[in-house]
Amino acid sequence: MIRIGIVGYGNLGRGTESAILQNPDTELYGVFSRRDPATVKTLSGAKVYHLDNILEHKENIDVLIICGGSATDLPVQTPALAEHFNVVDSFDTHAKIPEHFEKVDAQAKKGYNIAVISTGWDPGMFSLNRLYAEAVLPDGKDYTFWGKGVSQGHSDAIRRIEGVIDARQYTIPVESAVEKVRKGENPDLTTREKHTRLCFVVAQDGADLERIEKEIVTMPNYFADYDTTVNFISAEEMKRDHSGIPHGGMVIRSGKTGLNKENTHIIEYSLKLDSNPEFTSSVILAYARAAVRMKKEGMTGCKTVFDIPPAYLSPKSGEELRKNLL
Amino acid sequence: MIRIGIVGYGNLGRGTESAILQNPDTELYGVFSRRDPATVKTLSGAKVYHLDNILEHKENIDVLIICGGSATDLPVQTPALAEHFNVVDSFDTHAKIPEHFEKVDAQAKKGYNIAVISTGWDPGMFSLNRLYAEAVLPDGKDYTFWGKGVSQGHSDAIRRIEGVIDARQYTIPVESAVEKVRKGENPDLTTREKHTRLCFVVAQDGADLERIEKEIVTMPNYFADYDTTVNFISAEEMKRDHSGIPHGGMVIRSGKTGLNKENTHIIEYSLKLDSNPEFTSSVILAYARAAVRMKKEGMTGCKTVFDIPPAYLSPKSGEELRKNLL
Prior knowledge:
The structure is a homodimer. By secondary structure, chain A is of the alpha/beta class. In chain A, 34% of the residues lie in helices and 26% in strands. Chain A has helices spanning 11-22, 74-82, 97-110, 125-136, 152-159, 175-182, 191-194, 209-217, 235-241, 276-296, 318-324; strands at 2-7, 26-33, 48-50, 63-66, 87-88, 114-116, 140-146, 149-150, 164-173, 195-203, 227-232, 247-257, 263-273, 301-303. In chain A, the strands form 3 sheets. The first copy, chain A, has a 7-stranded parallel β-sheet, with helices on both faces. In chain A, strand 1, helix 1 (11-22) and strand 2 (26-33) form a beta-alpha-beta unit. The radius of gyration of chain A is 22 Å and the shape is globular. The relative contact order of chain A is 0.15. The model of chain A has no long low-confidence stretch (mean pLDDT 97). At the A-B interface, helix 1, helix 3, helix 4, strand 13 and helix 10 of A face helix 1, helix 3, helix 4, strand 13 and helix 10 of B. Strand 13 (263-273) of chain A pairs antiparallel with strand 13 of chain B, so a sheet runs across the interface.
C-alpha cells in the first residue's frame, strides 16, 4: 500500500482524494491544510491535519502530493517538503520550470528523496508527447492547441474588473488552423490564428457593459492578442450552464521521412476532459506511484515526466505489462 | 556519434538507412546481409558486409538495428546478436513477446549489452499509449484501431492463392465504432465491428475470379471474421494506385473519475503514416540512441519501450528538454 498525504485541499486536492479511492494500491493517510483542520471536511472522511505539524507524520507517509498553486505555493512548498518527503507537484509556470527544478533537486538530494515536478497534462502528458514525437520525427514541427476548456487564470482576470460579479473564459482552438496542421501543411500561426477566447460574464446591476467588454478585449497578455467574444449572462445561467471545469486539447506533430523527405507522418495526441482537476490529479497519482518506486530503488533528486520509465506509473509487473499491453 | 549497423536490407533496413541520414548524432557503419554483398546496392552508398562476418566489426559498432521479419529472422538473430552487440528490433508477434524477451534478456546479460525489443508503433508507440492511459485512468477501457493501411501479412496471404498475381489488402477501422468509442460509450465490439478489409487483386488471365474471391473471404484467421471486399484490378492499376505502404491507426481510452464516476475523459493517440516502414524505423532509431545511452550508464539486459525513460530517446540534454518541451 502506498500511503499518501495531500497538501492543500482545493479542486486538485479533492481530485487527488477521489483518484486515490480508484487505485487499490494507494491509500490516503491524511490531508494537510493551512486552514484550521476543524473547518475542513473531506469528501471521503479522511483526516485533516495542520500543515505546520506535517513533520510529525513523516514515518506514516510514502509520498506527498502537493496541490497548491504555481504562482506562490509550489515555489516554496515543494522544495521545503522535498527535504523530508517524496513529493509530486503540478508546477505549471513553463518559463520557471528550470529554476523550480534546481531548487527542488537540491532539497530532494539533501533528504535522499524523490521529487517529481510539473506533472499533469500540460506540463505532463502533452510534454511527453512533444518529446516522443520530436525524437521520432526530427524533421518536423509540433503544435499544441488547448481547449475547448475553461482557463482559470483568464476567468480570474475578468473577475478582477470593476462591475464583474462572476466570469468564465473558454479557450477554443481555431478549427481551420487545426485542420491545416492535421494535413501536414506546417503553417506558421500567430497567437490569434491558433485560439479564440469566449467569455461569459455576470455583471453588477447597472454596470457599464460596454466598458467591461472593452476592458476585457484589450487586456494585455490575457486577451489583446486574441479574437475575444464577450457574452453577458445572468447568475442563474452561469450556474446552470458553466459550472463544470472541462478542458482538453491536442499535441500534433507532422514530420517528413525518406531520402528526399517524400513521406509525411502525422502524430496526434488529444484529450477531452470533463474535469480538468480530476484528470490532472489522476496523472499526478500515477507519478506518485513512480516516485515511491524510484525511492525504493535508491534514486534521489528531482525528476520530470521525461526521466521516468513508463512502467513505473503502473501497478502491474513488467511481465504483466509485456504480456497484455505491449 | 552513434555508429550503427543495419542487419537485413529490406523495406525496414532502407527506412533505417534514411532515418540515420536525418539524425545528425547517428552514422551508418554498414549494412549486414545474408546475400552476397556484391549484389546489394544501398541507397546512400553505405558499405555492405556479409552477415556471417559481423563479429569482425564488433569494435566499430555501437548498436545494431535488426531489420528482419518476426516470423523466422528475429527469434534467432536478436538473441544471437545481443550477446555481442547492443541491439534493437521490432519483433511484433504480440503473443510471443514474453518468450522472445526471456531469450534475448539472457543473451544480452551474458554479453553485458542492452537489447531493446518490439519497438516501432505497434508494438511500440501504441503500447506506450495503452500503458500511460491505463495508468492514468484505471477505471476505463481502451481500444486500438488500425488503418486505413496496408497489411503486409494479409496481402501475402492473398498472393498465395492459386491464380493470384499480386494483391494489396487495406485494413480499415469502422467509423461508427470509432465514433462510439470517442463518445465514451465503451461499447463491446466484435472483430467484425471494429475493422473491415478491402482487397485489390490482380488475377491471371482466365482465372476463376469467383473461386478466388470465395477463398479470400472465407480464409480462417485472416478474413473469415471480417466484412471483406474484393476488387479485381489490372497490374497497371495496382502499380499506379497501390504502390505506397501507408498505415496508421489510433489508441483510444475512455475512463471515469470522480467520487461517483461522474466525469468522463477521452485520451486518443493517432498516427497517419505515408510509409509504415519509414515511420517504424524512425521509432527504432530513437530507441537505438536510448540503447547506447543505457549501456554507457552500465545497464544490461532486455528492455522494452515500457522500461526506457523518454528523455533517452532525444539527443537533447535534460536542461534543454525541461526548458523547451516540458
